[in-house]
Design goal:
With 430 residues, the protein is α/β, with parallel strands linked by helices. 20% of the residues lie in helices and 21% in strands.
Protein backbone atom coordinates (compact mmCIF):
# COMPACT_ATOMS: atom_id res chain seq x y z
CA UNK A 1 0.00 0.00 0.00
CA UNK A 2 1.26 3.48 -0.85
CA UNK A 3 1.28 5.93 2.04
CA UNK A 4 1.95 9.59 1.44
CA UNK A 5 0.85 11.22 4.71
CA UNK A 6 1.52 10.42 8.35
CA UNK A 7 1.04 12.23 11.64
CA UNK A 8 3.69 11.61 14.29
CA UNK A 9 4.87 12.89 17.68
CA UNK A 10 8.53 13.69 18.30
CA UNK A 11 10.32 14.56 21.54
CA UNK A 12 13.91 15.45 22.23
CA UNK A 13 15.75 14.23 25.32
CA UNK A 14 15.66 16.09 28.64
CA UNK A 15 18.98 17.35 29.96
CA UNK A 16 20.33 15.48 32.98
CA UNK A 17 20.20 17.29 36.33
CA UNK A 18 23.35 18.63 37.92
CA UNK A 19 24.47 16.81 41.08
CA UNK A 20 24.99 18.05 44.66
CA UNK A 21 27.83 16.34 46.51
CA UNK A 22 31.00 17.10 48.50
CA UNK A 23 34.42 15.58 48.72
CA UNK A 24 34.79 13.10 51.56
CA UNK A 25 38.42 12.13 51.74
CA UNK A 26 40.64 11.01 54.58
CA UNK A 27 42.64 13.86 56.07
CA UNK A 28 40.51 16.45 54.22
CA UNK A 29 38.56 18.24 56.94
CA UNK A 30 36.19 20.22 54.77
CA UNK A 31 36.05 18.94 51.20
CA UNK A 32 34.64 21.25 48.63
CA UNK A 33 31.67 20.66 46.28
CA UNK A 34 32.27 18.03 43.59
CA UNK A 35 28.84 17.58 42.01
CA UNK A 36 29.10 16.74 38.30
CA UNK A 37 27.14 18.21 35.39
CA UNK A 38 24.19 16.47 33.80
CA UNK A 39 24.45 15.00 30.29
CA UNK A 40 22.87 16.59 27.23
CA UNK A 41 19.54 15.21 26.02
CA UNK A 42 19.41 13.54 22.62
CA UNK A 43 18.38 15.39 19.45
CA UNK A 44 15.58 14.47 17.02
CA UNK A 45 17.13 14.20 13.56
CA UNK A 46 15.53 13.57 10.16
CA UNK A 47 17.66 12.06 7.39
CA UNK A 48 16.86 11.14 3.80
CA UNK A 49 17.01 7.44 2.92
CA UNK A 50 17.08 6.87 -0.86
CA UNK A 51 15.87 3.32 -0.32
CA UNK A 52 12.47 4.47 0.96
CA UNK A 53 9.59 5.54 -1.27
CA UNK A 54 6.58 5.61 1.07
CA UNK A 55 5.69 6.72 4.60
CA UNK A 56 4.08 3.39 5.40
CA UNK A 57 6.35 2.72 8.42
CA UNK A 58 4.92 5.77 10.18
CA UNK A 59 1.48 4.17 10.16
CA UNK A 60 2.76 1.64 12.70
CA UNK A 61 5.12 3.73 14.83
CA UNK A 62 3.82 7.20 15.66
CA UNK A 63 5.94 8.29 18.65
CA UNK A 64 9.66 9.02 18.43
CA UNK A 65 11.61 10.00 21.53
CA UNK A 66 15.29 10.76 21.95
CA UNK A 67 17.04 9.56 25.11
CA UNK A 68 17.27 11.77 28.20
CA UNK A 69 20.68 12.84 29.47
CA UNK A 70 21.85 11.15 32.65
CA UNK A 71 22.25 13.18 35.86
CA UNK A 72 25.69 14.15 37.06
CA UNK A 73 27.43 12.23 39.81
CA UNK A 74 29.82 12.73 42.70
CA UNK A 75 33.55 13.31 42.19
CA UNK A 76 32.82 15.70 39.31
CA UNK A 77 31.46 12.85 37.18
CA UNK A 78 29.50 14.17 34.20
CA UNK A 79 26.30 12.41 33.24
CA UNK A 80 26.20 10.49 29.97
CA UNK A 81 24.63 12.27 27.01
CA UNK A 82 21.34 10.90 25.76
CA UNK A 83 21.31 9.14 22.38
CA UNK A 84 19.90 11.01 19.40
CA UNK A 85 16.96 9.51 17.56
CA UNK A 86 17.38 9.39 13.77
CA UNK A 87 14.18 9.25 11.72
CA UNK A 88 14.61 8.09 8.12
CA UNK A 89 12.28 9.46 5.45
CA UNK A 90 12.08 9.13 1.65
CA UNK A 91 13.38 11.97 -0.52
CA UNK A 92 10.64 14.51 -1.16
CA UNK A 93 9.16 14.32 2.36
CA UNK A 94 7.84 17.65 3.60
CA UNK A 95 7.81 18.05 7.39
CA UNK A 96 4.99 20.27 8.64
CA UNK A 97 3.78 21.44 12.04
CA UNK A 98 0.59 19.43 12.46
CA UNK A 99 -1.75 22.09 13.84
CA UNK A 100 -0.89 24.97 11.49
CA UNK A 101 0.18 22.96 8.44
CA UNK A 102 3.22 25.24 8.05
CA UNK A 103 6.36 23.84 6.45
CA UNK A 104 9.26 23.18 8.84
CA UNK A 105 11.60 21.52 6.33
CA UNK A 106 11.43 20.02 2.86
CA UNK A 107 13.73 16.99 2.71
CA UNK A 108 14.58 17.51 -0.95
CA UNK A 109 17.54 18.73 -2.97
CA UNK A 110 20.49 19.40 -0.68
CA UNK A 111 18.41 19.00 2.50
CA UNK A 112 19.61 15.53 3.49
CA UNK A 113 19.84 15.88 7.27
CA UNK A 114 17.89 18.14 9.62
CA UNK A 115 17.96 18.51 13.40
CA UNK A 116 14.37 19.44 14.15
CA UNK A 117 14.58 19.44 17.97
CA UNK A 118 17.68 19.79 20.08
CA UNK A 119 17.99 17.93 23.34
CA UNK A 120 17.93 19.85 26.60
CA UNK A 121 21.24 21.07 27.95
CA UNK A 122 22.55 19.28 31.02
CA UNK A 123 22.38 21.15 34.34
CA UNK A 124 25.50 22.36 36.11
CA UNK A 125 26.63 20.55 39.28
CA UNK A 126 27.09 22.38 42.59
CA UNK A 127 30.86 22.67 41.95
CA UNK A 128 30.09 25.63 39.67
CA UNK A 129 28.35 27.65 42.39
CA UNK A 130 31.06 27.79 45.02
CA UNK A 131 32.13 31.35 45.89
CA UNK A 132 34.21 32.96 48.61
CA UNK A 133 31.03 33.52 50.61
CA UNK A 134 29.22 30.31 49.64
CA UNK A 135 31.77 27.52 49.84
CA UNK A 136 29.29 24.68 50.29
CA UNK A 137 26.41 25.29 47.85
CA UNK A 138 23.55 22.88 48.43
CA UNK A 139 21.96 23.38 45.05
CA UNK A 140 22.63 22.42 41.42
CA UNK A 141 21.02 23.38 38.13
CA UNK A 142 18.29 21.12 36.77
CA UNK A 143 18.61 19.91 33.18
CA UNK A 144 16.77 21.82 30.49
CA UNK A 145 13.41 20.29 29.62
CA UNK A 146 12.68 18.20 26.55
CA UNK A 147 10.99 19.75 23.50
CA UNK A 148 8.09 18.12 21.68
CA UNK A 149 6.16 18.60 18.45
CA UNK A 150 3.24 17.09 16.58
CA UNK A 151 4.27 16.72 12.95
CA UNK A 152 2.53 15.98 9.67
CA UNK A 153 4.75 14.26 7.13
CA UNK A 154 3.76 14.53 3.48
CA UNK A 155 5.51 12.79 0.61
CA UNK A 156 5.43 14.86 -2.56
CA UNK A 157 6.70 12.93 -5.56
CA UNK A 158 9.88 14.36 -7.09
CA UNK A 159 9.51 14.34 -10.85
CA UNK A 160 10.29 16.71 -13.71
CA UNK A 161 7.08 15.97 -15.58
CA UNK A 162 3.61 15.19 -14.29
CA UNK A 163 0.92 13.39 -16.28
CA UNK A 164 -2.56 14.70 -15.50
CA UNK A 165 -5.97 14.02 -16.95
CA UNK A 166 -9.33 12.53 -16.16
CA UNK A 167 -9.51 8.82 -15.27
CA UNK A 168 -8.96 6.26 -18.00
CA UNK A 169 -7.38 8.57 -20.58
CA UNK A 170 -4.19 6.52 -20.91
CA UNK A 171 -1.67 8.01 -18.48
CA UNK A 172 -0.48 4.67 -17.09
CA UNK A 173 -0.30 3.21 -20.58
CA UNK A 174 1.90 6.08 -21.75
CA UNK A 175 4.21 5.85 -18.73
CA UNK A 176 4.66 2.10 -19.13
CA UNK A 177 5.52 2.57 -22.82
CA UNK A 178 8.12 5.33 -22.41
CA UNK A 179 9.83 4.32 -19.16
CA UNK A 180 10.84 1.46 -16.90
CA UNK A 181 7.75 1.90 -14.73
CA UNK A 182 5.31 -0.99 -14.54
CA UNK A 183 2.04 0.49 -13.31
CA UNK A 184 -1.01 -1.71 -12.96
CA UNK A 185 -3.41 -0.92 -15.78
CA UNK A 186 -7.07 -1.80 -16.13
CA UNK A 187 -10.05 -0.28 -17.87
CA UNK A 188 -11.96 1.33 -15.03
CA UNK A 189 -11.95 4.64 -13.22
CA UNK A 190 -9.41 5.28 -10.50
CA UNK A 191 -7.34 2.34 -11.70
CA UNK A 192 -4.18 4.11 -10.53
CA UNK A 193 -4.41 4.89 -6.85
CA UNK A 194 -0.68 5.44 -6.35
CA UNK A 195 1.65 7.83 -8.18
CA UNK A 196 4.04 5.89 -10.41
CA UNK A 197 7.50 7.20 -11.27
CA UNK A 198 9.41 6.32 -14.43
CA UNK A 199 12.69 7.45 -15.97
CA UNK A 200 12.37 8.45 -19.62
CA UNK A 201 15.56 7.84 -21.62
CA UNK A 202 15.89 9.69 -24.92
CA UNK A 203 18.78 9.34 -27.37
CA UNK A 204 21.05 12.37 -27.26
CA UNK A 205 19.53 13.76 -24.04
CA UNK A 206 19.86 13.26 -20.30
CA UNK A 207 16.26 12.13 -20.08
CA UNK A 208 13.85 13.04 -17.28
CA UNK A 209 11.64 11.65 -14.52
CA UNK A 210 7.94 11.36 -15.25
CA UNK A 211 5.15 10.81 -12.72
CA UNK A 212 1.79 9.31 -13.54
CA UNK A 213 -0.50 11.26 -11.22
CA UNK A 214 -3.69 9.30 -10.50
CA UNK A 215 -6.83 10.31 -12.38
CA UNK A 216 -8.57 13.44 -11.20
CA UNK A 217 -12.27 14.12 -11.12
CA UNK A 218 -14.25 17.33 -11.03
CA UNK A 219 -14.20 18.66 -7.46
CA UNK A 220 -10.79 17.16 -6.70
CA UNK A 221 -9.46 20.51 -5.44
CA UNK A 222 -12.19 20.43 -2.80
CA UNK A 223 -11.18 16.96 -1.69
CA UNK A 224 -13.79 15.06 -3.70
CA UNK A 225 -12.64 11.50 -4.31
CA UNK A 226 -8.94 11.36 -3.53
CA UNK A 227 -8.30 14.84 -4.88
CA UNK A 228 -5.96 16.36 -2.31
CA UNK A 229 -3.90 13.18 -2.02
CA UNK A 230 -3.39 13.18 -5.80
CA UNK A 231 -2.90 16.87 -6.41
CA UNK A 232 -0.06 17.29 -3.91
CA UNK A 233 2.15 15.09 -6.10
CA UNK A 234 2.28 17.58 -8.98
CA UNK A 235 3.47 20.47 -6.81
CA UNK A 236 7.13 19.82 -7.73
CA UNK A 237 6.74 19.11 -11.44
CA UNK A 238 8.16 21.63 -13.89
CA UNK A 239 6.12 20.60 -16.93
CA UNK A 240 2.63 19.13 -17.09
CA UNK A 241 1.58 16.74 -19.83
CA UNK A 242 -2.18 16.99 -20.02
CA UNK A 243 -3.49 13.75 -21.51
CA UNK A 244 -6.95 13.78 -23.03
CA UNK A 245 -9.06 11.14 -24.74
CA UNK A 246 -9.23 12.79 -28.16
CA UNK A 247 -11.54 10.07 -29.48
CA UNK A 248 -14.10 10.66 -26.73
CA UNK A 249 -14.43 6.90 -26.20
CA UNK A 250 -16.40 7.48 -22.99
CA UNK A 251 -18.71 10.06 -24.50
CA UNK A 252 -16.90 13.10 -23.06
CA UNK A 253 -15.90 16.26 -24.89
CA UNK A 254 -12.05 16.35 -24.88
CA UNK A 255 -11.93 20.17 -24.92
CA UNK A 256 -14.22 20.41 -21.89
CA UNK A 257 -12.13 17.69 -20.17
CA UNK A 258 -9.04 19.87 -20.48
CA UNK A 259 -10.82 22.89 -19.02
CA UNK A 260 -12.20 20.74 -16.19
CA UNK A 261 -8.74 19.59 -15.07
CA UNK A 262 -7.23 23.07 -15.45
CA UNK A 263 -9.98 24.48 -13.22
CA UNK A 264 -9.08 21.90 -10.56
CA UNK A 265 -5.38 22.80 -10.80
CA UNK A 266 -6.18 26.51 -10.51
CA UNK A 267 -8.44 25.95 -7.50
CA UNK A 268 -5.87 23.77 -5.71
CA UNK A 269 -2.78 25.90 -6.36
CA UNK A 270 -2.68 28.76 -8.90
CA UNK A 271 1.10 28.39 -9.22
CA UNK A 272 0.66 24.85 -10.56
CA UNK A 273 -1.88 26.02 -13.13
CA UNK A 274 0.74 28.47 -14.47
CA UNK A 275 3.34 25.75 -15.11
CA UNK A 276 4.16 25.01 -18.78
CA UNK A 277 1.73 22.54 -20.29
CA UNK A 278 1.62 20.38 -23.38
CA UNK A 279 -1.50 18.50 -24.46
CA UNK A 280 -1.22 14.87 -25.52
CA UNK A 281 -4.31 14.10 -27.61
CA UNK A 282 -4.41 10.35 -26.96
CA UNK A 283 -6.30 7.44 -28.58
CA UNK A 284 -6.05 8.84 -32.11
CA UNK A 285 -6.13 5.22 -33.28
CA UNK A 286 -9.76 5.16 -32.08
CA UNK A 287 -10.82 8.33 -33.93
CA UNK A 288 -13.37 7.61 -36.66
CA UNK A 289 -13.98 9.73 -39.72
CA UNK A 290 -17.29 11.46 -40.07
CA UNK A 291 -17.68 14.09 -37.37
CA UNK A 292 -14.60 16.15 -38.15
CA UNK A 293 -11.09 15.87 -36.73
CA UNK A 294 -11.14 16.26 -32.92
CA UNK A 295 -7.35 16.80 -32.79
CA UNK A 296 -7.64 19.83 -35.08
CA UNK A 297 -10.45 21.16 -32.88
CA UNK A 298 -8.21 20.81 -29.79
CA UNK A 299 -5.35 22.56 -31.61
CA UNK A 300 -7.62 25.40 -32.71
CA UNK A 301 -8.75 25.89 -29.09
CA UNK A 302 -5.43 25.71 -27.25
CA UNK A 303 -2.49 26.41 -29.56
CA UNK A 304 -3.46 30.13 -29.83
CA UNK A 305 -3.03 30.13 -26.02
CA UNK A 306 0.56 28.93 -26.40
CA UNK A 307 -0.13 25.28 -25.48
CA UNK A 308 1.26 22.78 -28.00
CA UNK A 309 -0.95 19.80 -28.94
CA UNK A 310 0.56 16.45 -29.95
CA UNK A 311 -1.66 13.66 -31.33
CA UNK A 312 -0.52 10.30 -29.94
CA UNK A 313 -1.52 6.71 -29.40
CA UNK A 314 -0.13 5.42 -26.11
CA UNK A 315 -1.04 1.88 -27.20
CA UNK A 316 0.72 1.84 -30.58
CA UNK A 317 3.38 4.47 -29.82
CA UNK A 318 2.36 6.75 -32.67
CA UNK A 319 3.46 10.36 -32.06
CA UNK A 320 4.96 9.55 -28.63
CA UNK A 321 8.59 10.17 -29.66
CA UNK A 322 7.78 13.66 -30.96
CA UNK A 323 5.91 14.49 -27.73
CA UNK A 324 8.79 13.40 -25.49
CA UNK A 325 11.45 15.35 -27.39
CA UNK A 326 9.26 18.47 -27.21
CA UNK A 327 8.88 18.01 -23.43
CA UNK A 328 12.65 17.55 -23.09
CA UNK A 329 13.22 20.87 -24.91
CA UNK A 330 10.77 22.55 -22.53
CA UNK A 331 12.68 21.19 -19.52
CA UNK A 332 16.04 22.33 -20.88
CA UNK A 333 14.66 25.84 -21.16
CA UNK A 334 13.54 25.82 -17.52
CA UNK A 335 16.86 24.92 -15.89
CA UNK A 336 17.65 22.16 -13.42
CA UNK A 337 16.57 23.73 -10.15
CA UNK A 338 14.18 21.59 -8.13
CA UNK A 339 11.11 23.01 -6.45
CA UNK A 340 11.90 23.01 -2.72
CA UNK A 341 9.32 24.39 -0.31
CA UNK A 342 10.54 27.17 1.96
CA UNK A 343 10.35 26.86 5.76
CA UNK A 344 7.39 28.66 7.32
CA UNK A 345 7.60 27.38 10.89
CA UNK A 346 10.76 27.43 13.00
CA UNK A 347 10.85 25.06 15.99
CA UNK A 348 13.86 26.96 17.40
CA UNK A 349 11.64 29.91 18.23
CA UNK A 350 8.20 28.28 18.33
CA UNK A 351 9.15 25.87 21.12
CA UNK A 352 11.61 28.32 22.66
CA UNK A 353 14.50 26.07 21.83
CA UNK A 354 17.18 28.73 21.57
CA UNK A 355 15.76 31.07 24.18
CA UNK A 356 18.94 30.83 26.24
CA UNK A 357 21.34 31.33 23.33
CA UNK A 358 23.07 34.66 23.92
CA UNK A 359 23.06 37.58 21.54
CA UNK A 360 24.37 41.13 21.57
CA UNK A 361 22.71 44.28 20.29
CA UNK A 362 25.06 47.26 19.96
CA UNK A 363 25.31 50.62 18.23
CA UNK A 364 28.42 51.11 16.06
CA UNK A 365 29.02 54.87 16.14
CA UNK A 366 31.78 54.79 13.54
CA UNK A 367 29.59 53.02 10.94
CA UNK A 368 26.35 54.53 12.24
CA UNK A 369 24.79 51.05 12.32
CA UNK A 370 23.10 48.81 14.85
CA UNK A 371 24.88 45.45 15.03
CA UNK A 372 23.13 42.23 16.10
CA UNK A 373 25.12 39.02 16.66
CA UNK A 374 24.61 35.68 18.35
CA UNK A 375 24.52 31.93 17.54
CA UNK A 376 20.72 31.84 17.26
CA UNK A 377 20.73 34.79 14.84
CA UNK A 378 23.47 33.25 12.71
CA UNK A 379 21.67 29.90 12.61
CA UNK A 380 18.38 31.48 11.56
CA UNK A 381 20.09 33.43 8.78
CA UNK A 382 21.68 30.19 7.58
CA UNK A 383 18.44 28.52 6.54
CA UNK A 384 16.07 31.42 5.89
CA UNK A 385 15.62 32.71 2.34
CA UNK A 386 15.64 36.46 2.96
CA UNK A 387 15.07 37.14 -0.75
CA UNK A 388 11.51 35.85 -0.48
CA UNK A 389 8.79 37.91 1.17
CA UNK A 390 7.63 34.93 3.23
CA UNK A 391 11.13 34.10 4.47
CA UNK A 392 11.89 37.70 5.39
CA UNK A 393 8.59 38.00 7.28
CA UNK A 394 9.36 34.93 9.38
CA UNK A 395 12.84 36.25 10.12
CA UNK A 396 11.25 39.47 11.38
CA UNK A 397 8.99 37.39 13.63
CA UNK A 398 12.09 35.68 15.03
CA UNK A 399 13.71 39.04 15.84
CA UNK A 400 10.53 40.10 17.61
CA UNK A 401 9.95 36.89 19.60
CA UNK A 402 13.60 36.70 20.73
CA UNK A 403 13.50 40.23 22.16
CA UNK A 404 16.02 41.66 19.71
CA UNK A 405 13.65 44.28 18.30
CA UNK A 406 12.82 45.42 21.81
CA UNK A 407 16.52 45.92 22.59
CA UNK A 408 17.04 47.84 19.34
CA UNK A 409 14.23 50.18 20.33
CA UNK A 410 15.76 50.58 23.80
CA UNK A 411 18.96 51.77 22.12
CA UNK A 412 16.98 54.46 20.32
CA UNK A 413 16.72 53.02 16.81
CA UNK A 414 14.51 55.03 14.44
CA UNK A 415 12.85 54.39 11.09
CA UNK A 416 15.41 54.30 8.29
CA UNK A 417 18.35 53.35 10.53
CA UNK A 418 20.55 50.45 9.39
CA UNK A 419 20.74 47.10 11.18
CA UNK A 420 23.66 44.76 10.37
CA UNK A 421 23.50 41.01 10.97
CA UNK A 422 26.44 38.89 9.83
CA UNK A 423 27.00 40.66 6.52
CA UNK A 424 23.31 41.42 5.90
CA UNK A 425 22.16 45.03 6.23
CA UNK A 426 18.53 46.14 6.56
CA UNK A 427 16.70 49.40 7.01
CA UNK A 428 14.63 49.42 10.18
CA UNK A 429 10.94 50.30 9.96
CA UNK A 430 8.53 49.84 12.84
Amino acid sequence: MFADRAKIYVRSGKGGDGHVSFRHEKFVAAGGPDGGDGGRGGDVIFVVDEGLNTLIDFRHIRKYKAQDGEPGGKKNCRGKDGKDIVIKVPPGTVIKEAETGKVIMDMSGENRRFVILKGGRGGSGNQHYATSTMQAPMYAQPGRPAKELELMLELKVIADVGLVGLPNVGKSTLLSRVSNAKPKIANYHFTTLNPNLGVVDLDGTKGFVMADIPGLIEGASEGVGLGHEFLRHIERTKVIIHIVDAAGTEGRDPIEDIYTINRELEAYNPDIAKRPQVIAANKIDAVYDGDGNPVEAIKAEFEPRGIAVYPISAVSGQGVRELLYHVNEMLEGLGKEMTVFEPEYFPETAVNQDAEEPYTVEYDREEDEYVVEGPGVEKMLGYTNLDSEKGFRFFQNYLKSSGILKELEALGIEDGDTVRLYGHSFEYYK
